[in-house]
Amino acid sequence: MIASSSSAAAAALSSSSHHHHHHHKQRIIQNFKRKTTTKTTTNRRRATTTTKAIMGDQGIYNPPESKEEAFQQCATAIERLVNASQKKSSSNKKRAMRKQVSKRGQFLCAELPVMDDGALSTSEMALSLVFDEENTSVVYADEEAARKSAEKNGKVETFSLAEALEVEADFIASEKTGAVYLVGFGEDEVEQAVKLTKKINPSRAIVLVNAEWMHAGDGGDIYKSEIIASGKDVDSISETEKFKNQFAVVYSYLPLAIENKVFGQNAGGAIFKCVLGGAPSGTPWRILITDKDGKFSQVGAMQRRPEGEDIQNTFYNAYAATSQVNKGVGAIKSTFDKFKENLPNPFGGGG
Q1: Contacts of 198 (CB under 8 A, 6+ apart)
Q2: Contact predicate 9/350, CB 8 Å
Q3: Where is the DUF1995 domain (predicted)?
Q4: Can you give the CATH number for the domain in which 203 is found?
Q5: Burial class for 319, CB neighbours closer than 10 Å (0-12, 13-18, 19+)
Q6: Is 309 helix (H, G, I), strand (E, B) or coil?
Q7: Taking residues 60-73, what's their average pLDDT?
Q8: Beta pairing class for 2-4 and 248-260
Q9: Rounded distance, CA 151 to CA 169, Å?
Q10: Are residues 201 and 272 located together in one domain of the fold?
Q11: Is 68 or 99 the better-scoring residue by pLDDT?
């Protein structure tokens, strides 16, 4: 059985319950199976090269060993992307002034495990992702979290969603230039989030933290291509659907616990993505497994968000490759199949 190590509602990786992952799935899974069944040595070689490529010359690439480290890595990733984009846009200002257009800042997304989805945990997480207190605004879907956050750090401009939608909260006229964090927004708040985005100065980055709706996390490319493939007109997509799918994941850390009856041992794993530069969709999602000493090793990497089935197949192949007990392999496969549908979302909330 695969379960998340933080308490959880089903969704983030459920393999079949979400419409916009359907269309290309079979083909991708076939290819993925072919890739992952190659010998472990090639896997190992591929893993190290991927790691090097992700690491580049720039610090973070190892999965976090604590919640604090995850928060810190995530804050760094957001800061790098927001700053790089601001540098670019300030050099474009002269041109933009001639054209009188302001390009919308980035739509970024962060996914982090929290101990619980209570107001205190939520506000602590959000505040630890803020890298520029003076210029940042944080909007919480949950009023209580907004209150706790304001008590904890008065320097950061803080609103509940209801307050942010009031006329007084004029984000367009605001002097602030930093990111606007939208924290803990659920499916029910999407339409309000769309309204709110229209009130935000378009040059500011919007960072969605632990949203409770499913999306591919690639800035909308997969979603758009699936709409086109289905024969629908891209212009017919509702504003809310566009909004939900336009975020690019800059950081994602999803711990998994695997109960493995066949080998009589439990194992851990994680899905991990940390963008350190360039277009967020260029950094792969990494599928990691922990050894008995709790060290992570990479057993797969994918350009799109791994789904339940991808994770099952990857873990299954990793176990099969390292196992002396080959006759146990069929039994593992069936254990995995049973639990395929209920991979949890560790980020609290329903959906």
Answers
A1: none
A2: yes
A3: 64-312
A4: 3.40.50
A5: buried
A6: helix
A7: 89
A8: antiparallel
A9: 19
A10: no
A11: 68
For 186, the token pair is 């659920």
For residue 282, give its domain range: 2-59+254-345
Task: Please give the average per-residue pLDDT across 11-35, as a whole number.
Answer: 34
Query: Which DSSP state fits 278?
Result: S
Phi, psi angle pair for 26, to nearest 5°: -55, -50
Number of domains in the chain: 2
The three-state secondary structure class of 104 is coil
Both 79 and 21 in one domain: the answer is: no
Highest mean pLDDT among 23-32, 79-88, 122-131, 173-182: 122-131
Largest CA distance in the chain: 70
- Give the helix/strand (H/E) hosting 28: helix 25-36
Q: What pTM, to 2 d.p., does this model score?
A: 0.74
198: amino acid identity, one letter: K
Give yes or no for a contact between 138 and 126, defined as CB atoms under 8 angstroms apart: yes
CB 180 within 8 A of CB 206: yes
The tokens 């390292």 sit on which residue?
322
Give the residue among 161, 110, 145 at the shortest CA–CA distance from 131: 110
Domain assignment present for 276: yes
Q: What is the pLDDT of residues 175-186, one digit of tens each?
A: 899 999 999 999
Query: For position 43, what pLDDT does the model report?
Result: 40
In whole angstroms, give the CA distance from residue 119 to residue 124: 9
Q: Are 76 and 83 in contact (CB under 8 A)?
A: no
Same domain, residue pair 267 and 231: no
Asked whether residue 109 falls in the same domain as residue 201, the answer is yes
Between CA 317 and CA 45 the distance in angstroms is: 16
DSSP SS3 for 334: helix
Q: Quote the CA–CA distance of 78 and 270 in Å, as a whole number.
A: 21
